[in-house]
Structure formats: C-alpha cells, structure tokens
C-alpha cells in the first residue's frame, strides 16, 4: 500500500535556529563495559590501542564527528572522587561501584585518560562533578586541576602527574539526577546547592565553562521551574555578571515496560514496536513543555536545556551482568533515534546539547565490543548518527508534514512519518522516518524557496524490524544509496519502504 498524498513542505530559504552539533553528543559512564573493555583496554592489550585507548573505537566515533563526551556518570559521578583517578596507576585507590554491579573500580581510567580520549576523538569534554557525596572544594579543585595554566597548587599537581598544558573543559555538570541517585534531594534544596557549587567551578585563564545544573526526570516540570527560579534575575541583578549555571539538564529514557520488565531489545511484538516509537515521540511533548516552563522565566532563551541522557533502555542480554546494562540494538532503536533527532531539530532554539546513553556497550550504544574476541560492531543507531552528520551546526528548516497517517498508541497519536530538515553550505538535508512496521509510503517533498540541483539519498532499513548487527554479521543493517527519489512538480518524490530511515541531500541555489 502506498500513501501518495503525504507531503513534507519545506521553505528552503527560511532557516530558523542553528542545530548545535552538540545535539549529537555522547555519554560514557563507569558502567559495565563502557569504559573498561569499551573505550579502554589498557596498554598491554592485544587490541590496538594508544595509552590503553582502543583505536578502532576512536576511529569509529570520529566518523560520527563526535562533538562532546560526558563523563564519568551518571549515577557514578556522585560517588566519584577525582583525586582517586590521578597519579601512578598502581597507586590509585580502589572504590566500590555500588550503582553498577557492585564491583571494585581500580580507577585506572581517570582524569588524564579521559582528557586524552577527548583529544584523540577531537571531542569537547563534558565533565560531570560530584554534588551528592563530594565537596565544594573538591569540585573547585578539579576544574583548577583541569584548566589552570600557572603554578597554582592544582596546576602544579597536574604537572607533577605529567601534563604541562591545561586542558579545555567547556562543559561541566553540577551533579547528576539530584532527585535520585545523586542525593535524593528536594528541588529547592538542590537548587541552592547548584548555585553554591557552580559558583566555585571557576573560569581559569581563557577556559570558559558552561555549567549545567542537574535537571528534571522526564515530566518533572516543578524541578525545572525550581532551577529557573534559582537563577533569580538571570545575571541581571546589581553585582551579577552572569548566572551561576548556564543550563539545566533533562533525562528521558524510552522503555516499553516497567523497570522489572522493560522488554527485550531484539524479541518484540508489532505492538511493542509501536509503543517504543510512541514513547520516543513523547520527547516532543517533553521538550515543548520544559521549554515553555523555561520561557516563563527566560523569554530570551539565555539558559540552555541539555538532554544529557536519552535513549532506549531494554532488559539486559541473557547471560550478562544485570548491573552492566548491556543490550542489543535493532532497527527499532535506529528509528527511536531518528524520531528524537527530528524533535531536537525542532527545539534547537532552546535545546543546546543532547547526549545519548551510552556510547559503547551500555544501553542504546553506538558500538558493541565482543568481550571474548574484542570484535567491534557498529549498531543501527550508529548509522543514524552518521547519516545525520550533515545536520551538525546547520540551520533548522521547518518541515511541515501534511496528510500523514497516525496511529493511536499508548495514549497518543503517533505520526507514522517523522521528518526534519536543515540547510548548510548551499544544500539541504532532509530526514524521513517511515515508522510503519509493514507499509511502504511515497512522500512528496514540497520544496519552496530555492532551485534544486544535484540530489542524492541514503536508506537504512532491513527485511526485519528486529534486524541487528553482530560480529558474525556486522553489516546486516547499514546505510546504502537509495534510488527511490524522483523529480516531482513540487520538488521531489521519495519512496519509503516500511520501517525505513532515509536522508535526502539536495543542492540548492
Ligand atoms: O545511564 C544509566 C543511568 O541512568 C545513569 O547513571 C543515571 O543518571 C540514569 O538514571
């Protein structure tokens, strides 16, 4: 069955806000095999590495033009004491990673290793500090250690540990999930602490820090309101030159069941396909409403919203440690990601960063590594990130979907076509997701305000909605050129097979 009446209307000459490349950010926690075995194998490993950091992982993430990496947590961040992760590796104290598997962490991956990883990736560092069990002094000294150039005590300590030049740390998190694992605080109590801690995360030399307060869970709009209220007159009071924190975070995960039965990553029904996509589409409602709350305090959008944890959360793969959150990743995850990105583009006036959880071997990962052979697999989600690199720092274009069917599922109407577009360097990139598990559709791109030049398209799909990649079949699902695009009096006509993700790139003049 095809649906010829569906149109996507795009004004090519009316770019709106800039889609920050940081909306394509990542998150790496000391959790399961994300750091150890994922990013870091140690210098003595047979897996090619530089200073213990896997080169294949770095190369793959560079393909995504990874803009930033958040570390060390997550819940782990509020248990982490950074001084345990510096100095000679053999002398570093151990700790218990009580959130994730109750295992002993040897701190062999610490500040220097993380900053070296960021340098190898060409990514900005987003360091998440400890409010829950840390001190103001500890947080203050960490940023001094990282970014100060002179002979201050922390700069001298860094030098003694082998790093002369300060690093750049553009992003710093003031705790994590303070309403939960980060201290079980009330919104008002945390708001005061966020102001206090952020005050001591100082700009040293020419390093300017963007401080991100630990924000709301899902639809906790009261939490967002409290943090906005905590900003008082937004740096405009006498004696204030800036706000104590410049952004607030938000966390939202896509699941199809309750915590004790979240559903399998690979073995799901058609209904569960739609429930997952409907819950992914809920991000639109959450970004709209959190932004609206923020608008009430900050109509000029000076304060940023940072979705620094998002993605699918399924039951762990059979036989793996339940505390390690290792899950497979299918075409369904890919479309969960593409639906999120469409929404991110629409909200790029307020949403300044987003970080998928988590980069390697944990939750909705880009990369999976085999614990026995070390083999690296790119997931379908990786491919969506790669297909969307053209949206980085592009101007968002409104993409009005006209005549698309929707399906009522999980209490909301899920449009079966999701779309977004952007423009950069004389071309437009249009993203189209056909969320229909069984029907193809043909969509007209009604492109106004520009003459069309060369067109190319790529498609990510598979015969099966649960298709995924494994070390034995690493390219079962990977993007290929799409020839289902034709000129149309209104612009272009695009064939979208069932359960597919397509990007169309058009030169415009
Ligand atoms: O990403 C896994 C965990 O989810 C993070 O540690 C925590 O912040 C969230 O609850």
Total domain units: 2
Taking all residues together, what is the mean pLDDT?
Answer: 96
What is the number of strand segments?
27
Task: Assign the structural class, choosing from mainly alpha, mainly beta, alpha/beta, alpha+beta, or little secondary structure.
Answer: alpha/beta
Describe the structure.
- The relative contact order is 0.15.
- The protein is 22% helix and 27% strand.
- Helix 5 links the parallel strand 9 and strand 10.
- The strands form seven sheets. Strands 2-5-8-9-10-11-12-13 form an eight-stranded parallel β-barrel, surrounded by five helices.
- It is globular and about 70 Å long.
- With 509 residues, the chain is of the alpha/beta class.
- The protein is built from nine helices and 27 strands.
- The chain has two domains: 117 residues, Golgi alpha-mannosidase II (Immunoglobulin-like, Sandwich), CATH 2.60.40.1180; 374 residues, Alpha-Beta Barrel (TIM Barrel).
- The protein starts with 6 loop residues before the first strand and ends with a strand.
Give me some keywords for this one.
single chain; 509 residues; alpha/beta; Immunoglobulin-like; TIM Barrel; 2 domains; eight-stranded parallel barrel; six-stranded antiparallel β-sheet; 9 helices; 22% helix; globular; binds alpha-L-arabinofuranose
């Amino acid at each position: 069955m095809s649906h010829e009446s569906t149109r996507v209307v795009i004004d090519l000459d009316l770019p709106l806000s800039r889609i920050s490349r940081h909306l394509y950010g990542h998150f790496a926690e000391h959790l399961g095999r994300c750091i150890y075995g994922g990013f870091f194998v140690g210098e003595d490993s047979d897996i090619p590495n530089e200073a213990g950091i896997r080169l294949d992982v770095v190369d793959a993430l560079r393909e995504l033009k990874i803009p930033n990496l958040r570390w060390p947590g997550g819940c782990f961040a509020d248990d982490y004491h950074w001084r345990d992760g510096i100095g000679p590796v053999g002398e570093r104290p151990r700790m218990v990673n009580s959130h994730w598997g109750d295992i002993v962490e040897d701190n062999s991956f610490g500040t220097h290793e993380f900053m070296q990883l960021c340098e190898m990736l060409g990514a900005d560092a987003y360091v998440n500090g400890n409010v829950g069990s840390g001190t103001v002094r500890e947080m203050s000294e960490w940023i001094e250690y990282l970014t100060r150039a002179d002979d201050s005590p922390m700069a001298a300590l860094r030098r003694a540990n082998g790093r002369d030049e300060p690093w750049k740390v553009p992003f710093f998190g003031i705790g994590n999930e303070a309403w939960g694992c980060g201290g079980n605080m009330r919104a008002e109590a945390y708001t005061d602490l966020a102001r206090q801690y952020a005050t001591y995360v100082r700009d040293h030399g020419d390093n300017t820090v963007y401080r991100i307060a630990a924000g709301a869970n899902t639809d906790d709009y009261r939490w967002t309101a409290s943090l906005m209220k905590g900003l008082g007159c937004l740096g405009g009071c006498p004696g204030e030159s800036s706000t104590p924190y410049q952004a607030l975070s938000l966390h939202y995960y896509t699941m199809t069941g309750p915590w004790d039965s979240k559903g399998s990553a690979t073995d799901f029904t058609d209904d569960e396909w739609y429930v997952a996509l409907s819950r992914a589409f809920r991000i639109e409602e959450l970004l709209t409403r959190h932004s609206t709350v923020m608008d009430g305090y900050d109509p000029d959008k000076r304060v940023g919203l940072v979705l620094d944890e998002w993605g699918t959360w399924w039951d762990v793969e059979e036989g793996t440690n339940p505390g390690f959150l290792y899950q497979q990743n299918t075409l369904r995850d890919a479309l969960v990601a593409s639906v999120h990105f469409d929404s991110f583009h629409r909200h790029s006036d307020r949403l300044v960063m987003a970080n998928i959880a988590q980069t390697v071997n944990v939750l909705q990962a880009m990369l999976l590594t085999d614990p026995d052979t070390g083999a690296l697999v790119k997931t379908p989600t990786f491919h969506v990130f790669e297909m969307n690199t053209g949206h980085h720092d592009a101007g968002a274009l409104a993409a009005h979907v006209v005549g698309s069917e929707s399906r009522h599922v999980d209490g909301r109407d899920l449009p079966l076509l999701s779309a977004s577009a952007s423009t950069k360097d004389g071309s437009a990139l249009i993203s189209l997701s056909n969320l229909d598990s069984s029907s193809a559709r043909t969509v007209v791109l009604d492109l106004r305000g520009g003459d069309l030049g060369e067109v190319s398209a790529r498609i990510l799909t598979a015969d099966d909605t649960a298709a995924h990649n494994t070390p034995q079949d690493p390219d079962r699902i990977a993007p290929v050129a799409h020839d289902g695009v034709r000129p149309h009096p209104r612009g272009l006509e695009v064939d979208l097979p069932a359960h597919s993700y397509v990007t169309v790139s058009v030169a415009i003049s």
